[in-house]
Amino acid sequence: MSTTRTLRIAVALALMTLCGSALAAAEGDAVLTANSGPKLPFPLIERFENFGKEQGIPANKVHCVLKTSEGKLWIGTWNGLCLKEEAKFRRIGPEDGLTHKMVTSIAEDPKSGDLWIGTMRGLNRYSGGRITTYTQTSSGLPNNVVYAVSVIGDTVWAATAAGMGAFEPHSGKWQIYDHNNSVMHEPWCYAVKGGKDVIYFGVWGGGIIEHDPVKGSFKEYRDPDGDFHFDLVADDGPINDITSWLDWEDGVLWQCTYSGVSRYDGKGWRTWVQDKSPLVSNFTQFVWVHRGVAWIGADRGVSVTDGDYWANYLLGEKGEGLLEIHRPGQPVEKRTMTTGLPNCFVLGIYVDDQEAWFATSKGLGRAVFRDIKKNTDVAESK
Protein backbone atom coordinates (compact mmCIF):
# COMPACT_ATOMS: atom_id res chain seq x y z
CA MET A 1 0.00 0.00 0.00
CA SER A 2 1.42 3.37 -1.02
CA THR A 3 2.19 6.09 1.49
CA THR A 4 -0.28 8.44 -0.23
CA ARG A 5 -3.11 5.90 -0.02
CA THR A 6 -2.32 5.20 3.64
CA LEU A 7 -2.54 8.91 4.45
CA ARG A 8 -5.88 9.23 2.63
CA ILE A 9 -7.35 6.34 4.62
CA ALA A 10 -6.09 7.82 7.90
CA VAL A 11 -7.59 11.21 7.08
CA ALA A 12 -10.93 9.64 6.12
CA LEU A 13 -11.07 7.65 9.37
CA ALA A 14 -10.25 10.77 11.38
CA LEU A 15 -13.01 12.73 9.64
CA MET A 16 -15.52 9.93 10.29
CA THR A 17 -14.57 9.92 13.98
CA LEU A 18 -14.95 13.69 14.24
CA CYS A 19 -18.34 13.64 12.50
CA GLY A 20 -19.56 10.85 14.73
CA SER A 21 -18.45 12.73 17.86
CA ALA A 22 -20.16 15.91 16.67
CA LEU A 23 -23.38 14.02 15.96
CA ALA A 24 -23.32 12.38 19.38
CA ALA A 25 -22.75 15.73 21.03
CA ALA A 26 -25.62 17.32 19.06
CA GLU A 27 -28.00 14.55 20.11
CA GLY A 28 -26.85 14.12 23.70
CA ASP A 29 -28.03 15.84 26.88
CA ALA A 30 -24.59 17.13 27.89
CA VAL A 31 -24.21 19.39 24.87
CA LEU A 32 -21.02 21.45 24.93
CA THR A 33 -21.14 25.17 24.27
CA ALA A 34 -18.66 27.29 22.38
CA ASN A 35 -16.83 27.76 25.66
CA SER A 36 -16.45 24.00 26.20
CA GLY A 37 -18.83 23.93 29.14
CA PRO A 38 -21.95 21.83 29.65
CA LYS A 39 -25.23 23.37 28.61
CA LEU A 40 -26.81 25.50 31.33
CA PRO A 41 -30.19 24.46 32.78
CA PHE A 42 -31.60 27.93 32.08
CA PRO A 43 -31.51 30.41 29.19
CA LEU A 44 -29.05 33.27 29.21
CA ILE A 45 -30.10 36.82 28.55
CA GLU A 46 -29.22 38.14 25.11
CA ARG A 47 -30.05 41.78 25.76
CA PHE A 48 -31.98 44.16 28.01
CA GLU A 49 -34.66 46.67 27.02
CA ASN A 50 -35.14 49.34 29.68
CA PHE A 51 -38.05 51.64 30.48
CA GLY A 52 -38.09 54.79 32.60
CA LYS A 53 -39.78 58.14 32.95
CA GLU A 54 -39.40 58.80 29.21
CA GLN A 55 -41.80 55.91 28.56
CA GLY A 56 -44.31 57.11 31.16
CA ILE A 57 -43.21 55.36 34.34
CA PRO A 58 -44.08 57.98 37.01
CA ALA A 59 -41.17 57.24 39.36
CA ASN A 60 -37.63 55.90 39.14
CA LYS A 61 -38.24 53.28 41.80
CA VAL A 62 -40.22 50.24 40.60
CA HIS A 63 -41.10 47.89 43.45
CA CYS A 64 -42.82 44.98 41.69
CA VAL A 65 -43.75 43.60 38.28
CA LEU A 66 -46.31 40.99 37.18
CA LYS A 67 -47.52 39.65 33.84
CA THR A 68 -51.09 38.37 34.11
CA SER A 69 -52.56 35.26 32.53
CA GLU A 70 -53.91 37.52 29.74
CA GLY A 71 -50.43 38.80 29.01
CA LYS A 72 -50.89 42.26 30.50
CA LEU A 73 -47.88 43.71 32.28
CA TRP A 74 -48.43 45.58 35.54
CA ILE A 75 -45.85 47.35 37.66
CA GLY A 76 -45.99 48.87 41.11
CA THR A 77 -43.97 52.03 41.62
CA TRP A 78 -43.19 54.63 44.27
CA ASN A 79 -45.83 56.77 42.57
CA GLY A 80 -48.69 54.52 41.53
CA LEU A 81 -49.76 51.34 39.74
CA CYS A 82 -49.02 51.18 36.00
CA LEU A 83 -50.28 49.11 33.08
CA LYS A 84 -47.91 48.77 30.14
CA GLU A 85 -49.65 49.67 26.91
CA GLU A 86 -47.19 48.98 24.09
CA ALA A 87 -44.24 51.32 24.76
CA LYS A 88 -46.11 53.57 27.23
CA PHE A 89 -47.49 53.12 30.75
CA ARG A 90 -50.92 54.13 32.05
CA ARG A 91 -50.84 55.21 35.69
CA ILE A 92 -53.49 54.47 38.34
CA GLY A 93 -53.09 56.43 41.57
CA PRO A 94 -54.94 57.67 44.65
CA GLU A 95 -57.01 60.00 42.46
CA ASP A 96 -58.38 56.84 40.79
CA GLY A 97 -59.24 55.19 44.10
CA LEU A 98 -55.96 53.54 45.10
CA THR A 99 -55.37 53.73 48.86
CA HIS A 100 -51.78 54.96 48.50
CA LYS A 101 -49.39 55.91 45.72
CA MET A 102 -46.62 53.54 46.88
CA VAL A 103 -47.37 50.08 45.49
CA THR A 104 -45.40 47.27 47.12
CA SER A 105 -46.84 44.06 45.62
CA ILE A 106 -49.26 42.72 43.00
CA ALA A 107 -50.98 39.32 42.76
CA GLU A 108 -53.51 37.91 40.31
CA ASP A 109 -56.48 35.76 41.22
CA PRO A 110 -56.13 32.96 38.65
CA LYS A 111 -59.86 32.22 38.76
CA SER A 112 -61.32 35.71 38.31
CA GLY A 113 -58.38 37.61 36.84
CA ASP A 114 -58.75 40.26 39.55
CA LEU A 115 -55.63 42.04 40.74
CA TRP A 116 -54.81 42.45 44.42
CA ILE A 117 -52.50 45.34 45.12
CA GLY A 118 -50.58 45.93 48.34
CA THR A 119 -49.61 49.48 49.24
CA MET A 120 -48.13 51.38 52.15
CA ARG A 121 -51.64 52.23 53.26
CA GLY A 122 -53.97 49.37 52.59
CA LEU A 123 -54.95 46.56 50.23
CA ASN A 124 -56.76 47.13 46.91
CA ARG A 125 -58.78 44.93 44.58
CA TYR A 126 -58.81 45.90 40.90
CA SER A 127 -61.71 44.22 39.11
CA GLY A 128 -63.38 45.27 35.87
CA GLY A 129 -61.67 48.64 36.02
CA ARG A 130 -62.98 49.37 39.52
CA ILE A 131 -61.02 49.54 42.77
CA THR A 132 -62.25 48.21 46.12
CA THR A 133 -60.16 49.15 49.14
CA TYR A 134 -59.42 47.37 52.42
CA THR A 135 -57.75 49.19 55.27
CA GLN A 136 -57.13 48.52 58.94
CA THR A 137 -60.05 50.69 60.00
CA SER A 138 -62.49 49.73 57.23
CA SER A 139 -61.92 45.96 57.27
CA GLY A 140 -60.06 43.23 59.11
CA LEU A 141 -56.68 43.95 57.51
CA PRO A 142 -54.07 43.52 60.29
CA ASN A 143 -52.14 46.64 59.31
CA ASN A 144 -52.14 49.19 56.50
CA VAL A 145 -48.50 48.51 55.58
CA VAL A 146 -48.81 45.58 53.16
CA TYR A 147 -45.46 44.11 52.10
CA ALA A 148 -46.75 41.17 50.07
CA VAL A 149 -50.01 39.73 48.78
CA SER A 150 -50.76 36.27 47.39
CA VAL A 151 -53.94 34.54 46.21
CA ILE A 152 -54.00 30.91 47.32
CA GLY A 153 -57.14 28.99 46.47
CA ASP A 154 -60.12 31.12 47.46
CA THR A 155 -58.17 33.13 50.03
CA VAL A 156 -56.23 36.37 49.68
CA TRP A 157 -53.22 36.51 52.00
CA ALA A 158 -51.66 39.83 53.00
CA ALA A 159 -48.30 40.02 54.79
CA THR A 160 -48.35 43.18 56.88
CA ALA A 161 -46.35 45.01 59.54
CA ALA A 162 -48.69 43.62 62.21
CA GLY A 163 -49.33 40.03 61.19
CA MET A 164 -50.67 37.89 58.39
CA GLY A 165 -54.19 38.54 57.14
CA ALA A 166 -56.32 35.90 55.39
CA PHE A 167 -59.34 37.27 53.53
CA GLU A 168 -62.22 35.37 51.93
CA PRO A 169 -63.71 37.67 49.26
CA HIS A 170 -66.96 35.67 49.00
CA SER A 171 -67.81 35.96 52.68
CA GLY A 172 -65.93 39.16 53.46
CA LYS A 173 -64.34 37.51 56.51
CA TRP A 174 -60.81 38.09 57.76
CA GLN A 175 -58.56 35.92 59.89
CA ILE A 176 -55.47 37.42 61.51
CA TYR A 177 -52.38 35.43 62.48
CA ASP A 178 -49.81 37.03 64.73
CA HIS A 179 -47.85 36.44 67.96
CA ASN A 180 -51.10 35.93 69.88
CA ASN A 181 -52.44 32.87 68.03
CA SER A 182 -49.46 31.28 66.26
CA VAL A 183 -45.81 30.35 66.87
CA MET A 184 -44.85 33.72 65.40
CA HIS A 185 -42.92 35.53 68.13
CA GLU A 186 -43.29 38.88 66.37
CA PRO A 187 -45.91 39.97 63.82
CA TRP A 188 -43.77 41.72 61.19
CA CYS A 189 -44.44 39.67 58.02
CA TYR A 190 -42.58 40.31 54.77
CA ALA A 191 -43.72 37.51 52.46
CA VAL A 192 -46.38 34.82 51.93
CA LYS A 193 -46.41 31.88 49.49
CA GLY A 194 -48.54 28.80 49.00
CA GLY A 195 -47.02 25.33 49.05
CA LYS A 196 -48.63 21.92 48.79
CA ASP A 197 -51.51 22.07 51.30
CA VAL A 198 -49.62 24.62 53.41
CA ILE A 199 -48.91 28.35 53.51
CA TYR A 200 -45.45 29.78 54.17
CA PHE A 201 -45.04 33.05 56.07
CA GLY A 202 -41.78 34.99 55.76
CA VAL A 203 -41.24 36.75 59.07
CA TRP A 204 -38.78 39.51 59.93
CA GLY A 205 -36.59 38.12 62.69
CA GLY A 206 -38.75 35.00 62.88
CA GLY A 207 -37.55 32.85 60.00
CA ILE A 208 -40.24 30.91 58.16
CA ILE A 209 -43.63 29.78 59.46
CA GLU A 210 -45.38 26.80 57.83
CA HIS A 211 -49.15 26.91 58.36
CA ASP A 212 -51.61 24.13 57.58
CA PRO A 213 -54.98 25.92 57.26
CA VAL A 214 -56.97 22.67 57.45
CA LYS A 215 -55.33 21.40 60.63
CA GLY A 216 -54.78 24.87 62.00
CA SER A 217 -51.19 23.93 62.83
CA PHE A 218 -47.97 25.96 62.69
CA LYS A 219 -44.36 24.88 62.26
CA GLU A 220 -41.38 27.15 62.68
CA TYR A 221 -38.11 27.09 60.70
CA ARG A 222 -35.39 29.17 62.34
CA ASP A 223 -31.69 29.75 61.77
CA PRO A 224 -29.95 27.16 64.01
CA ASP A 225 -26.89 29.42 64.30
CA GLY A 226 -28.91 32.25 65.81
CA ASP A 227 -26.50 34.77 64.29
CA PHE A 228 -27.94 37.70 62.32
CA HIS A 229 -24.68 38.46 60.51
CA PHE A 230 -23.02 35.15 59.60
CA ASP A 231 -23.97 31.64 58.55
CA LEU A 232 -21.80 29.71 61.00
CA VAL A 233 -22.71 26.24 59.69
CA ALA A 234 -23.70 25.83 56.04
CA ASP A 235 -26.79 23.84 55.01
CA ASP A 236 -28.05 23.40 58.60
CA GLY A 237 -31.34 25.30 58.14
CA PRO A 238 -32.59 28.72 57.07
CA ILE A 239 -29.58 30.93 56.58
CA ASN A 240 -31.07 33.75 58.65
CA ASP A 241 -34.16 34.63 60.68
CA ILE A 242 -34.71 37.84 58.72
CA THR A 243 -36.78 36.65 55.78
CA SER A 244 -37.09 39.25 53.02
CA TRP A 245 -38.92 37.06 50.45
CA LEU A 246 -40.08 33.52 49.70
CA ASP A 247 -41.06 31.46 46.68
CA TRP A 248 -42.17 27.85 46.29
CA GLU A 249 -42.39 25.50 43.33
CA ASP A 250 -42.84 21.72 43.05
CA GLY A 251 -41.94 20.95 46.65
CA VAL A 252 -38.96 23.31 46.88
CA LEU A 253 -38.96 26.45 49.03
CA TRP A 254 -36.53 29.33 48.46
CA GLN A 255 -35.78 31.99 51.08
CA CYS A 256 -34.16 35.38 50.54
CA THR A 257 -32.54 37.16 53.47
CA TYR A 258 -30.14 40.03 54.04
CA SER A 259 -27.42 37.46 54.81
CA GLY A 260 -27.73 35.08 51.86
CA VAL A 261 -30.13 32.57 50.29
CA SER A 262 -31.60 29.23 51.44
CA ARG A 263 -33.39 26.36 49.71
CA TYR A 264 -35.43 23.61 51.36
CA ASP A 265 -36.70 20.55 49.46
CA GLY A 266 -38.59 19.00 52.36
CA LYS A 267 -35.63 16.80 53.32
CA GLY A 268 -32.67 19.12 53.71
CA TRP A 269 -31.40 22.67 53.39
CA ARG A 270 -28.83 24.28 51.13
CA THR A 271 -27.46 27.75 51.78
CA TRP A 272 -25.37 30.21 49.78
CA VAL A 273 -23.49 33.32 50.80
CA GLN A 274 -21.43 35.87 48.91
CA ASP A 275 -17.72 35.05 48.43
CA LYS A 276 -18.22 31.40 49.47
CA SER A 277 -20.52 30.76 46.51
CA PRO A 278 -21.36 32.49 43.20
CA LEU A 279 -24.23 34.42 44.87
CA VAL A 280 -23.90 38.01 43.67
CA SER A 281 -24.59 39.54 47.11
CA ASN A 282 -25.80 38.57 50.58
CA PHE A 283 -28.35 41.38 50.53
CA THR A 284 -31.17 39.67 48.64
CA GLN A 285 -34.75 40.92 48.62
CA PHE A 286 -36.63 38.93 45.98
CA VAL A 287 -36.74 35.48 44.42
CA TRP A 288 -38.87 34.20 41.52
CA VAL A 289 -38.73 30.46 40.75
CA HIS A 290 -39.51 29.18 37.26
CA ARG A 291 -39.00 25.55 36.16
CA GLY A 292 -36.77 24.80 39.11
CA VAL A 293 -34.53 27.82 38.58
CA ALA A 294 -34.37 30.70 41.06
CA TRP A 295 -34.01 34.28 39.81
CA ILE A 296 -32.68 36.24 42.77
CA GLY A 297 -32.79 40.03 43.04
CA ALA A 298 -30.09 41.65 45.16
CA ASP A 299 -28.48 45.03 45.74
CA ARG A 300 -25.71 44.27 43.23
CA GLY A 301 -27.69 42.67 40.43
CA VAL A 302 -29.34 39.33 39.66
CA SER A 303 -28.25 35.74 40.31
CA VAL A 304 -29.86 32.90 38.33
CA THR A 305 -29.33 29.36 39.62
CA ASP A 306 -30.64 25.84 39.95
CA GLY A 307 -28.34 25.46 42.96
CA ASP A 308 -25.36 24.17 40.97
CA TYR A 309 -25.05 26.32 37.86
CA TRP A 310 -25.11 30.11 38.13
CA ALA A 311 -25.36 33.20 35.93
CA ASN A 312 -24.88 36.64 37.46
CA TYR A 313 -25.93 39.90 35.83
CA LEU A 314 -24.17 42.99 37.15
CA LEU A 315 -23.29 46.52 36.07
CA GLY A 316 -19.79 47.83 35.50
CA GLU A 317 -18.38 51.15 36.59
CA LYS A 318 -19.55 52.80 33.36
CA GLY A 319 -23.00 51.22 33.47
CA GLU A 320 -22.15 48.41 31.07
CA GLY A 321 -23.79 45.02 31.52
CA LEU A 322 -21.61 42.27 32.93
CA LEU A 323 -22.26 38.54 32.82
CA GLU A 324 -20.59 35.88 34.96
CA ILE A 325 -21.20 32.18 34.24
CA HIS A 326 -20.33 29.68 36.96
CA ARG A 327 -20.14 25.97 36.19
CA PRO A 328 -19.07 23.43 38.82
CA GLY A 329 -15.35 22.71 38.65
CA GLN A 330 -14.69 25.17 35.83
CA PRO A 331 -13.24 28.70 35.63
CA VAL A 332 -15.71 31.56 35.75
CA GLU A 333 -16.64 32.95 32.33
CA LYS A 334 -16.84 36.74 32.35
CA ARG A 335 -18.33 38.75 29.52
CA THR A 336 -19.32 42.32 28.77
CA MET A 337 -22.80 42.61 27.28
CA THR A 338 -24.06 45.20 24.81
CA THR A 339 -26.85 46.15 27.23
CA GLY A 340 -27.48 45.83 30.98
CA LEU A 341 -29.97 46.11 33.80
CA PRO A 342 -31.46 49.58 34.30
CA ASN A 343 -30.07 49.51 37.85
CA CYS A 344 -28.21 46.97 39.98
CA PHE A 345 -30.66 47.29 42.94
CA VAL A 346 -33.35 44.77 41.94
CA LEU A 347 -36.59 44.80 43.94
CA GLY A 348 -38.91 42.55 41.93
CA ILE A 349 -38.77 39.93 39.16
CA TYR A 350 -41.15 38.13 36.81
CA VAL A 351 -40.00 35.24 34.57
CA ASP A 352 -41.72 32.95 32.07
CA ASP A 353 -40.51 30.88 29.12
CA GLN A 354 -40.29 33.89 26.80
CA GLU A 355 -38.79 36.71 28.86
CA ALA A 356 -37.90 38.17 32.25
CA TRP A 357 -38.81 41.52 33.81
CA PHE A 358 -36.89 43.34 36.53
CA ALA A 359 -38.19 46.05 38.85
CA THR A 360 -35.28 48.19 39.97
CA SER A 361 -34.47 51.40 41.82
CA LYS A 362 -34.14 53.18 38.49
CA GLY A 363 -36.71 51.85 36.10
CA LEU A 364 -37.99 48.63 34.61
CA GLY A 365 -35.92 46.17 32.60
CA ARG A 366 -37.03 43.52 30.11
CA ALA A 367 -34.66 40.64 29.42
CA VAL A 368 -34.76 39.00 26.01
CA PHE A 369 -33.55 35.41 26.08
CA ARG A 370 -31.19 33.99 23.54
CA ASP A 371 -33.02 31.43 21.40
CA ILE A 372 -32.23 28.21 23.26
CA LYS A 373 -33.27 26.19 20.20
CA LYS A 374 -30.04 27.31 18.57
CA ASN A 375 -28.20 25.21 21.13
CA THR A 376 -26.09 27.99 22.58
CA ASP A 377 -25.92 29.67 25.97
CA VAL A 378 -23.35 32.35 25.34
CA ALA A 379 -24.71 35.86 25.98
CA GLU A 380 -24.18 38.55 23.39
CA SER A 381 -20.88 40.24 24.16
CA LYS A 382 -18.52 42.83 22.82
What is the count of DSSP helices, taking H or I runs of 4+ residues?
1
Shape: globular
The end-to-end span amounts to: 52 Å
Total strand count, please?
30
User: Pairing-aware structural class of the strands and helices?
Assistant: mainly beta
Oligomer: single chain
Portion of residues in helices?
A: under 10%
Strand content: over 45%
* Major β-sheet annotation: 6 strands, antiparallel
Unreliable spans are: 1-34, 374-382
The whole-number mean of residue pLDDT values reads: 89
Radius of gyration, in angstroms, nearest whole number: 24 Å
Side by side, the strands of the main sheet go 22-23-24-25-26-27
What does this structure look like?
With 382 residues, this protein is mostly beta strands. The protein has a domain at 41-60 and 304-382. The protein is built from 1 helix and 30 strands. The chain has one helix spanning 3-27; strands at 45-51, 62-67, 73-77, 80-85, 88-92, 103-108, 115-119, 122-127, 130-134, 146-152, 155-160, 163-168, 173-177, 189-194, 199-203, 207-212, 217-221, 243-249, 252-257, 260-264, 269-272, 284-290, 293-298, 302-305, 310-315, 321-326, 333-337, 346-351, 355-360, 363-369. The strands form 7 sheets. A 6-stranded antiparallel beta sheet has the order 22-23-24-25-26-27, with no helix packed on it. Strands 1-30-29-28 form a 4-stranded antiparallel beta sheet, with no helix packed on it. The longest helix is centred in the first third of the chain and has 25 residues, at 3-27.
